[in-house]
Queue: 4 jobs
Job 1
Amino acid sequence: MKKKELELELFEGLKAGNEGSIINVYDLYRSEFIHWCTTNYSTDEESAADIFQDTVIAFYYNIRNGLLRELSSSVKTYLFAIGKNLALKKIRKEAKMVMNDEVLELNAAFTNLDLFEESDRKKIVAELMEHLGEPCKSLLQLFYFDRFTMDAIADRLGYKNENVAKSQKLRCFNTLKKLALERFSQDDI
Amino acid sequence: MENTDLELFDGYIADSLSLEDKSAFEQRLETDASLKKRFEEYKVIVGGIKISRANALKQKLVRQESKYVSTPSIKPVLYKIAATLIFVVAATFIVNQFTSEKSYEELYQEYYSPYPNIIDPVSRSEKNNSSSLFQLYEEQKYTEVINALEDKERTEEERFYLSQTYMAVGQFNKALLEAHKISTNSRFYAPSQWYIALIHLNIQDTTALTKQLDFIITAKGDYKKRALDLKENL
């Protein structure tokens, strides 16, 4: 299979929310990325792998959330652009120094890294998700992160129809919110 | 939270409201302090859900990264990565021993990933209107797979993927029954033994889990390393 066809197939897989495609993207570009990152950003290999993992997740998130609908460049170009942003962000954070912003292409798929903006309260909610259990955890993740439709979620999680899944989602969200607000109020005391 | 609130917030964030509704909502946010407070809470909750999913995906990729450690044909430069990762994993393990133990549910999330469709993977470059059962499985159309396979006589391959499908939808008892029927000379025997262990992990049957992991470790197959890792983490 030609590289372009392979890239298109991977992109379509990510668009469809296929987790196998996330792994395939990781395997395909991992070595090249780690070599590039260690060479250009003076990171060690462990940090480069860490950055690449975040890169692939951000790429998938941006595709599923409609920030990247069609491939106008190669998958590699997108990955390396996101990776560059994340590497710079990591270096800035670790060095705690101000660097001049490098001018990157002003494309939301490259620059939207909100996913990694973690406030303390969001981290608490993420912890509480572990206590929420299934099917709530998967249902909320599939809706808010992967952006599956309620119809697709109903099909995937075995609900009778979209409306049943929607009611369950409301119950799950309210339970999580209740847990979170209780925890926030304890922390405020 | 009322359903109307949640639907309104979801619609606003997804940018699916009409211009009129969007503008009305933004105006209400400026004047209705209670609505604004609920919307701020909503954004924090959704942010937390996203972090939780990103963390889960991260764990899968970290696990994928660890596979490079044991690949014998990797280039010498990658051995350094492998050595570093082994150290990190070992250090994390030691630290975890003294700090926190992972719950069975967390371990399950960490170790479980659906077995890929190796029979006839979906090719998106080929136009094909009808999908095989295995392709339906790959496309996560689990209800269709169950409906098609549940009441028929199944081949070994179908049995294995039906078991996988049951796992994916959380029907672990059925998944276990199906996985136990895979014969020892099937190419899916070794993976099915690993998934049996994961089912025991999910349903928290400690005795059966330990026994199954020991069986996999003794068999010295492809799943030995994973079984050893899991056993150490219990």
Note: Residues 136 and 171 of chain A are 9 Å apart (CA to CA).
Job 2
Amino acid sequence: MTQLALVIDLNVCVGCHACVTSCKQWNTSGWAGPLADHNPYGAGPTGTFFNRVQTFEVGRFPATETLHFPKSCLHCEEPPCVPVCPTGASYKRPDNGVVLVDYDKCIGCKYCSWSCPYGAREYDELERVMKKCTLCIDRILDLTLPERERKPACVLACPTSARLFGDVHDPDSEVSIAIRERGGYALMPEWGTQPANHYLPRRKARLHIDPDELKRVDNPLRREDLTRYTGEEAVDDVAW
Amino acid sequence: MQEPIPDRAIGRAEVKETTCYMCACRCGIRVHLRDGEVRYIEGNPDHPLNHGVICAKGSSGIMKQYSPARLTQPLRRRPGAERGAADFEPISWDEAFQILTDRLAHLRATDPKQFALFTGRDQMQALTGLFAKQFGTPNYAAHGGFCSVNLAAGLIYTIGGSFWEFGGPDLDRAKLFVMIGTAEDHHSNPLKIAIGKFKRKGGKFISINPIRTGYSAVADEWVPIKPGTDGALLLAIIHEILKLGLYDRDFLIQYTNAAELVIDDPSRDDHGLFQRFELHYEEGCFDPENKLWWDPAIGAVGTHTPGAEPRLLGSYQLEDGTPVKPAFQLLMERVADYTPEWAAGITGIPAATIRRLAHEMGVTARDQQIELPIPWTDCWDNEHATVTGNPVAFHAMRGLAAHSNGFHTIRALGILMTILGTIDRPGGFRHRAPYPRPIPPCPKPPNGPERVQPDTPLDGMPLGWPAKPEDLFVDDAGEPLRIDKAFSWEHPLAVHGLMHNVITNAWRGDPYPLDTLLLFMANMAWNSSMNTVGVRQMLADKDGEGNYKIPFLVVCDTFASETVAFADLVLPDTSYLERHDVLSMLDRPISEYDGPVDSVRIPVLPPKGECRPFQEVLIELGTRLQLPAFVTASGARRYRDYPDFIINYETSPGSGIGFLAGWRGQGGEKFLKGEPNPRQWEMYAQNNCVYHHELPKSYQYMRNWNKGYLHWARAHGLIRYADPIGLNLYSEVLQRFRLAAQGKRPGRQPPARLAQRVATYCDPLPFYYEPLESGLVDTQRYPLNALTQRPMAMYHSWDSQNAWLRQIHGHNVLFVNPQVGIANGFGDGDWIWVESLQGEVRCQCRFSEAVEPGTVWTWNAIGKAAGAWGLAPDADEARRGFLLNHLISEELPATLAGDHLSNSDPVTGQAAWFDVRVRVRKAAPGEPATTQPQFAPQRRVPGQAPPPGRWLAYVAGRLGRR
Amino acid sequence: MHPALSVLFLTTLIGAGQGLFLALYTGQLYALAQLLPAQGSGFYVGGSVLALGLLVLGLVASFFHLGRPERAWRTATKWRTSWLSREVIVLPAVMGLVALYGLAHALELTARPWFTLAGILPVDATLVVGLLGTLATFALYGATAMIYASVRFLPEWHSPLTVANFLLLGLASGFLLAAAYSAWLGNELVTFFGFWAVVATGLGLVTRGASLRRLGRIKPKSSPQTAIGIRHRTLVQIAQGATAGSFNTREFFHGASPATLQWVRRLFLMLVFPLPVLLLVVGHALASRWLPLVAFGVQYLGLLLERWSFFAEARHPQNLYYQGVA
Ligand SMILES: Nc1nc2c(c(=O)[nH]1)N[C@H]1C(S)=C(S)[C@@H](COP(=O)(O)OP(=O)(O)OC[C@H]3O[C@@H](n4cnc5c(=O)[nH]c(N)nc54)[C@H](O)[C@@H]3O)O[C@H]1N2
Ligand SMILES: Nc1nc2c(c(=O)[nH]1)N[C@H]1C(S)=C(S)[C@@H](COP(=O)(O)OP(=O)(O)OC[C@H]3O[C@@H](n4cnc5c(=O)[nH]c(N)nc54)[C@H](O)[C@@H]3O)O[C@H]1N2
Ligand code: SF4
Ligand code: SF4
Ligand code: SF4
Ligand code: SF4
Ligand code: SF4
Ligand SMILES: [Mo]
């Protein structure tokens, strides 16, 4: 069975929010839209987004790491949000594992959001239904799009290519290889939700310079011999 | 709704290509329209700059296009209404042109310099500059002076190129990348793409920055540094590299002035100049090869004498007894005391770390050398079978630039890159066309009062690159002639002007009053000014007779910014999706390392309301004012419109050089140089709006000395001389100014009060000094440095109108290290006062471990004046957001050198935004949880959309709506 | 969690309504067993109408919780997996049965038994409907409570104690209301109902007390470390990506201070448990018509606070992602 998902490379995510607004613009005018905004030009503007980028600080100065952390629905393999839905509006597609909400069935009870430990669902206060990342189902399945573009909007937008997309059940896919080789991990594994989306951890490149490497025979300073030879006496001149 | 329907099946779908302008990076975009409305903006995968990616701002272009802040009509300040009250009446374009023509024609016929044109983050300086030149006013500049001129000047005067559009780090091949003082950069998407690739390849990425956010977050090593002290760090690194012999000696000898002999006799008037021999050469703006090396076997020899083995160190005597030293020796002496231990005390970085950084740079450069099988020929006709590179790349931005010691810091950086042998080589720094250019580049500013004449275009450009005191734009007393005092002894190398002082100077009438100030795309009544409260008062200030001190203020903007409120005349511009535009080789093109690239914008939507592109406005105005470039000999209109102008304008008749480099010549068969092509726009349109000329591989590297490239560049009009561009480890240009200040040079000399200043700061070698403000304020009293950073998802002031982006950054807080909170008795989230010599602001604080304890910072330009930008007066931006600018003064405290010296770098006039010193204290209990200062709400202007409702649910197109 | 008023009213109102119905039916059974004086049909009709009224009010309140109440019928479809769906099916059933129960009494169907069980127990429509109603009522208590108790991400709720609390506090308020109703009518059943109300309240105190004690000992399963997958002790959120908040900050945070939380907890402990009992006892001693009613009012108010606290004290793991604003 196919399980489509995103793999997010925290090693290169610079927290630019491109994935946030590209998602918003694709989806607000798309199949999953609109994504309403409340008080768009007033106090406390807030709206529905499928994807957010957050920032965390790890450790204390000066050993601080700043971590940018994009988060959207993780398309769990065991999605706790689905069975609790009283209407069947929340469902997981059997063909590709994408978890979706059918707005036409949703009654906006928000119960599913209580059953998502990741805070990945966002209720649309204007449409009064629950919304969430669709994995851009209307892009990835759209055969009228050229193959290169059959990817989520956020993936295409990401300037650092921190977002990989593919089938995590296919061991040879780019995402599976990345998870395997780069220590990809799932969020909150303690809940057994088996998120399909994975995160790739930071890696540190270090240089090691051996003290011996600092001075070498070809050191250019050796070619700047500044001594002046004036012909004065030397040990060499002494003969016992 | 279970099965999605193909998106294109909904409504009438179209896709158009153009170039983004949600920021100055200029990515290629594809705009998807549905029923004529913007449905989706994506990166153009076929564009050389962004390769299909896009950023948060670019993806939010829809909300900029449909923003309620849009201006739609020309406006005139209602008679009797006060400036700043935003009380306007709509007028027709004809009236607007009439008002402008009458006023400007008079000024042009009497005193053209009373008209000043200053532009902000625009990308059409070639056209605005041309207009100013044609008008005959020297009072023209763009944002460079308050932006990053230190980087431009510091590097161009050292290596003949700079970062951003001009060049950058070759991260495809670098092994070590050192990023200094960069949060976002102009070249933001390309830099992000490159950092992503670089990290994936496993290169080591070091970020030197007081704050760890954004790119620095993914750095392998973060080196927190005290603001304004990078000069000390870089000089100490140079010290260590020189001491250990980790420099690229061959590179220094062949390609820089390191081995060239400098006269070393303080008693002589030519002390510190290169010893030159007689050589007949045509006077030009290149460095003639009439200097000397010292070969121990032969003595003094001409540089690049085949077979010569010059010395870099030592001190020698020429046959005529002149004592000389190789420039490198002088550098060695200069950095002798700049030890890592010394720098540790200044920068807060442990000496061991400084040493390690030096070692990592030096050893990586030396031992990981790249060799590419690319043959090339240097200017001395030596054939090279390969191109080699030392894979250490640097990038720096305003963290270096926006300090008053930035010029020398950046010179130090240029020198560090040079001694590592990384200039225009793989894995190091790479130029972008039209760079490299001569050091300094050829154009010179006007250099005396006589250069400004009524009804006459300026001879030359308003801005240029001084090489000697005679190039300064000063009067006989040595006093400034530009309104911003650029190119004066106060700021001799102010190559981008000092926009940040224009309003204050004009208000004070120092050096003279202005009549008309035209601001294009610059929010000078808010985030782009220092001392914002004061500047707003000056804009509205009147003399004893009730006349405004700045008599006429014209603002061309697309949105209801804070500055619009102060205008006498408002010219509503189009949005970037509504106009033609060129990103020209004459300006700052988007060239790649592998060759010149320029691009265009082509409208994808009709202009909103009566909006008119400023390009069209300038051409119309130029025509009405009969400026020679815009009319025929008989005075008739020469260009139908802007697209017509772009096609047909040539820098001089028949030069074949115009605004666009691509598809020139009758049939589009030529590039860079060629006759106008009537179908040029179409050809850009068919090619993703971009022209990319890829150079042959052998022309892609070592361009300062690459004979093939330089001749090619000369043939194609990029440069005027094909002479080698030796790197200026030692800056003779600066020494000329210093000698003048020391009274040792015939000709122009600075006024006495400035002599000491010029002599100090025009040092031919970089040195470290404390930022000027720190030297003038009590740093015990103001112990902290306050900085701003660019948020990646916001562009200056112009994105708060954007309903999506403002949800990401709707207000800002002051980030402080918890130690600062503990020391000052407040906690995370408390409201505090931040106080500088200039003023104080109240804001909320947040504790952060990612900031050096001597620094506090906030996001730039998030705070807004109430009611501006189409926002409700109680918007978060106004109530909880704040500007740090209120704390930064545009002038320094009085000193012997003057009362009103700009708060800028003493060499370049670069605004010293990041020098400001502050202290913090907890707000009193009971103080309201709003920021201070607050401003009376700005009203909506006629033609601005009514206050939008409480809900926005954007769906493009009629059929898309549910 | 953010306590939504609609849900506070829904659960407390139907809890009391269900309890009242159970009280009536219990009373009827006792009377049948001649342990209590028999009541005229008016008593049951009035009581049923009251119970039904509470259930209807609860239902109305619940609609305020739904974004799309017009589609509420759809909720009946997923009873196999969703407790919410089950509640939605059982609630109308309870309402229907309570209505039928009242109707049967109104039609005096007690006088027309269908048959006599074991020769002594005449089984009429009210008895059968009442029995079905009782089963449905217990099912409803279970379903309502399980909506919360089954959310495994909220350990504060995810416990049998939640079911016990919903049941006992519903019963307590229902029996208390029955007592008040009887007292108002000047009916001697007040003692009986009052007794069971006190018993239920007492048991409720035990289970609710236990759940509060449990609250203090819950170790959240998730931590910032597991939330973002970084193993480091110091991990602080600096920005959550939206400076003015989002659905996630509205739905899952109450915004009240710890002091308020503490204060509400103390208040509801007073209002739900000792105070109504005291009022009832005093009312009983004084044979007051009013005091039992006041006792119910006080307890109901307390239950609203109790429910508020129930929500507010539940900390959702998603909150780990929504700690900081900048
Ligand atoms: N998204 C976005 N992109 C932009 C812009 C924008 O507004 N938004 N603006 C554009 C413009 S006009 C410009 S000029 C560029 C600016 O691009 P940057 O220069 O990259 O942007 P700044 O935010 O000014 O970043 C300055 C950085 O220098 C650091 N810094 C400050 N003082 C020092 C110091 O003394 N030493 C060191 N080592 N670091 C220091 C600050 O912490 C900060 O990280 O960005 C351009 N790109
Ligand atoms: N404290 C502090 N202040 C700073 C800086 C800092 O780091 N710290 N950075 C400085 C720097 S580097 C810069 S470059 C300046 C930026 O300064 P500005 O160039 O002034 O940038 P904006 O604030 O964006 O103002 C640009 C104006 O252009 C308008 N505009 C946008 N699009 C268009 C268009 O298509 N046509 C026209 N006609 N107008 C348009 C906007 O509405 C806005 O009013 O800020 C400076 N100010
Ligand atoms: S909000 Fe909608 S999707 Fe979520 S549980 Fe309720 S009906 Fe299902
Ligand atoms: S992340 Fe949340 S919403 Fe998405 S599938 Fe998992 S539980 Fe459901
Ligand atoms: S996959 Fe699509 S819907 Fe999901 S976050 Fe990315 S852009 Fe948004
Ligand atoms: S677009 Fe990419 S780099 Fe930017 S925040 Fe999203 S994941 Fe990170
Ligand atoms: S970086 Fe600038 S030009 Fe490129 S997409 Fe973003 S806003 Fe547009
Ligand atoms: Mo800038």
Note: Residues 5-226+237-325 of chain C form a domain with the Formate dehydrogenase/DMSO reductase fold fold (CATH 1.20.1630.10).
Job 3
Amino acid sequence: MDDSETTPREAPGPYRIRVQDACKIFKDVVALNHVDLEVKPAEVVLIIGPSGSGKSTLLRSINRLENLTSGDIWVDGDRVSDRAADIRRIREEVGMVFQSFNLFPHLSALSNITLAPRIVKKVPSAEALEAGMKLLARVGLADKADAYPDQLSGGQQQRVAIARALAMNPKVMLFDEPTSALDPEMIKEVLDVMTDLAREGMTMLVVSHEMGFARAAAHRVVFMDHGEIIEQGPPDAVFNCPTEARTRRFLEHIL
Amino acid sequence: MASLKDPRREVRPTGRSTRIEVTDGALIPEKGERVVFSAWRISFFGAIALLVILPFIAPDPYWKILQFLPDGILKTFQVTVLSIVCAVVVGLFTGLGRISRITLVNRIATIYVEIVRGIPLLVQIFYIYYALGKIVQVPDIAAAVIAMTVCYGAYLGEIFRAGIQSIPRGQMEAAIALGLSRSQALQRVILPQTLRVVLPPLGNEFIALLKDSSLVSILAVSDLLRRGREYASKTFFYFESFTVVALVYLVLTLFFSRLVAIMEERIGRRGR
């Protein structure tokens, strides 16, 4: 596709995700206010911040569930924010996990996982099923292949949702508050899967306030407020000695 | 937009299991109605008993009427089934049109719904019969089916629209985030779930259509009602003929309403 005129397919540098001067305005609310962010391959970045700070909007802009008002986003060198971009191909490379799981209730756990590979990538059925079973085993749910979402606990549903996203072999995984809808005893099983994923070298952008996960797996913590990135750095630095007053105030609330 | 909003049909998202409330004249028995003498049982078996007893005590008009009617029942079924099948197809596309992001498609679907819902079915039947007759000669039964399809297509369109909109937005988002196109997501994720939600209201519309099909007797379609009228005008047994016609309609609608109730319960039990 020749759209070099509108797509400055500039060298993405060593970045998997690059957000440049991103702005998003909903009616009269500024959700993203000139945000810049880079995520390197195999890097795990945790985004924290009060509700309404724009963290989910930032995440959802990366696979264009939201369209930016202005600014640019690249994923692996492809300009997502380009209206002419083949967004479906880009979305294949970007897995997403939602707060409310969003499993397809009319499909079994295994079918949830194999649906997209079969339809989008035209993977033969047998092959997709085999890969799906491997993924279920990886998230510890090999025995739940035939279970329907309403027969699974929240933690199990979220693990299936992670497996479903991984089935497309994404280069980047986005997690939008993956444990916020879970009972405390189920949070750990989901975080364990995510930690494993991080150790295996997946590039991850995670909106979450799970300090334990941040310390165990995150390379960097980004604090957002009112659509802006206020402060970022290694987890220990941000959590233990934040430089900004707003970060400190926020951390006092959640710690 | 909803200037002719129909309060009978509304979607009430109740957390996980969404159900479309239809408080139509549909005779859906209360779920879990386990009483021996439920209203449904009294009406249904009462009607059947009358249909059996009356020909016994007065075979002259009643047994003869009963023998005269089956052709009409068949015709009524023919019109009803053909119409509901066509109306489901029209309704599905109307519903999709109503949620379409393409303004033109959306507007056409909405105008269709508004016009049809604003004109009485009887007037529509007359209109389509005589208007079509001006252009092409169609058999009476075809005119009847077309009229019912046009009318019910609009009603079913609203049911499909409400059903599609009752599916949480996250479903579409999850599907397109996986790389599915909008239409793939619609076919593989949204519509299969919609079907479950709309099946009970579709059953109700089927029953409503069965009843409304009596209107086509004003065309030269010998349905159940018309057969009854034919017998009555031949023999002057008006009271007896229409008693039997009413009882037969009652047995049919009560029978199907029970089927819909069972179907609804099954869907509810299987969950989502």
Note: The mean pLDDT of chain B is 85.
Job 4
Amino acid sequence: MPKAPGTLYRGREGMWSWVAHRVTGVLIFFFLLVHVLDTALVRVSPEAYNAVIGTYKNPIMGLGEAGLVAAIVFHAFNGLRIILVDYWSKGAKHHRTLFWIAMGLFVVTMAGFLPRHLMHVFGG
Amino acid sequence: MSTPVITAPRSPYARRKTTRGNFELYGWVFMRISGVVLVALIFTHLFVNLLAGEGINAIDFAFVAGKWASLPWRIVDLIMLWLAMMHGTNGVRTIINDYAEKDRTRGILKVLLYSAFVIVVVTGTLVIFTFDPCPAGADPALLADFCKQL
């Protein structure tokens, strides 16, 4: 296995999962702000809420939702991996294995989610 | 002959008590505890709203009313709102601290962040507490079936 150049922390699974955790986290946070505010329209009137939700029900937004769910599922499994690295006595030793287990769970979860969601979006 | 007393060359090392408290430690622990809870809450949220039944096609006012007519769903959603906003705000705070180097930039970004936190949490909490699943005078076609029995 080629050694990462530079410091122990640079490159490879450790650094890239950290970068992806930040990127997905910020993405989810900005979605959450919009999500709470558009849901708040239920307090205005049924018409107002249905009108805004209606604009989300198209293929472009449907693909956006798929991307959002992918970001959430990655952040969730990678977050659990971080907790194991922090608290499990053997976590740091096996951090690379844990990362690939998290990615395996990501793929399995998305394989369960995507077909059904895309069928809803594209009316299959 | 008396034994000479050798004084210690210097006072023993004593770690200076930090005056800044343990805020960052509690924040770090909070991210892990809230993270585990949020995985369970959000996976349930996604399953119920995107996978079960008709998926996203079923989401409209009547769908939300159907959920929030029951107290347990309101409590679950309220907890999810607060935990997710605190987790997200603390995460973005960390990122601002890492990348915004000028005091002024950091200050402005944090004012924006905390304002967004307050606006979203207050709005969301008020909506969950004051929501009426069968508002008077609304078009009955847009309401949940159980409103007809009222």
Note: DSSP finds four helices and no strands in chain A.
